[in-house]
Amino acid sequence: MSITQGLSQSVELKKPLTALINSDCVPVGGIYRLDYDSAVVLTDDFKKEKAGGVPRGGFLLAVAGDNTESGFILEDQEIILLRVRGTAPLPNESELIQTRLAVVRDAGASGVGFDDVTDVLTRNELQQSAFDCEVLGTFYTETEGREASIEFGADIDNVVVSARYQVFLPSTQVLSWLASYPEPTDKKDALVIGRVRFAATRRKALIAGTDRAEARINVSDFVGRKTAVFGMTRTGKSNTIKTLVTAVHRYGSEHKRSIGQLIFDPQGEYANVNKQDRTGLRLLGDDESTVRIYKVDPSASDGREKPLRINFYDREVLEAAWSLVSEATTPVNTNYGKSFRSSVLSEPDQNDRSKHARWGWAMVAFYGLLAKCGFQASRLPQDLVVVAPSGPMQDFTTAHPEAVVQAGRAGSYRVISPSGALELAEWIGERESEFPKWHDTQDCHFSSIWGVYKYTGVTSAIRTIRPFHGPQSAGDVGEHLWHDMQAGRLAIVDLSSGNDQVAKVMSERIVTHLLNRAGERFRADHEPVDMQIIVEEAHNLFERGGREVADDPWVRLSKEAAKYRMGLIYATQEVTSVDKRMLSNTSNWLIAHLNSDHETRELAHYYDFKVWAPSIIRAEDVGFVRMKTYSGKYIVPVQVSKFDHSMVNAARNAAGLASIDVTIESE
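The structure corresponding to this sequence follows.
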């Protein structure tokens, strides 16, 4: 080789894509058929063995160029990215089958090995095979310079003679680059989510070292966008969510950006520290300035824990209380149950005395019903003044002197306590002739509410939500959480103490409140509040296609959240439980094992998850996901890293907090 040739090759080898191919990538064959969507790669057993195996779903790199003494020189600065879909028949496949059949027959008849009944040329011919590959796109540079940035196009813009293309299996280094492309401009925004994994069987990857290829994500992809985490129980969804929440927490600290995160926790696994490895999201902060955990029974010794309860008698949360009570009785599908739930308790204008009086009568029945169901309180937080005929009321006040007091003018009475409301409701309920207006169903809902007092189906259902009542609680949990989001805190709502229906209503109310508050801020032209909402076991909360957008806070969130900078991470084992409008607005996908083709068929409508359906159904390994991110150009299969103290401490250090000593057991 002349000096001129050597210098020319040296220059070529420094170009980014040429350098990529020469980073220990291993040749596995060549293309013998190529079109815009697919390619067939010719290979043989020797090349595959030398490369360490070629897994289904694996990446291959097709390039046109020449082998030189210095390395492989690209003819043009572009690389076609292929994904192995399966095997393909060779043009002479029928002849090869006949030859293989003869070899197997002769070897079996003579009791010798296959190699003993074939010559070298035949053996080489029999070892040839082909891969059916999908064309994912093209890596290219717009200039020939050594500093040119590598771009990606999701197709190919020209088809040339396929025989000019040689095909390489990426090395560990290049595989990591492919799995992480495009990497963020700010390197600290890159999170190692795990390592590339193509197959459940990992022997070849361990031998070749490709199991060490790291997959990095851009954390900003998960801020303010929708993320789906799908997988069966015990396949690592919670581990993935903890990793993402911790990464976003760290991202916010490093960028001096306040990002509130709200987790709806149906099982209590996020609100508490794991007893086995002593990790937990609550360790991201030491006090309530960083982390707040809302529980039915908060610990008095831990300032981070706050009451999840509301005071059902507090008129400031009347809407929330009535929603919880109504939803709790939904299973009671009788006429009196339906009539009860049709009641309206919104307070009318006080200047409309007639409507306000009727509302007050309904409130007596409602507060009385709560008292009957065991919702305790010594007094009502706000005065409830009702109008009633003086004559019949004299008998009541004589029989129940502690229930009500005269409120100024004749015929007005102040209800003092829930027990007083119960006594008054039961008295008037049994005396329709003496209190006809109270029982009038025209614009008055006293009778509809009083009518369920004697039906244990309704009262028993209401008693199930009694743990969410706290007579000392003040204000709406939704408003408290809004302030948490404004302050950039991590807030965890522990819903493990209630039934599924209560959890559903509580979470919907909170999300609706946050959306409304964010909308108010948006309309006032104020800077949006960055926040993330994380929903575990989302199939228990979402209703697919059940309601209009205005009535479904989750669909509202998927449609309105972008302008409010509200992100959503939802985890579920049922793709079909998620409204299609939400799926269509989801930017990030992490798919673990699903056991039903019903679910994978739904998943196949998005990106090219159809290719991965067999693997998703078959491979049950914990933490093995197929990942497509907002900035990612293609699906990458990943073994997600285990959530550990190093992740927690990295986030704590970014926030200026000391690392946690893992030798000290966390409470």
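The two ends are 71 Å apart (CA to CA).
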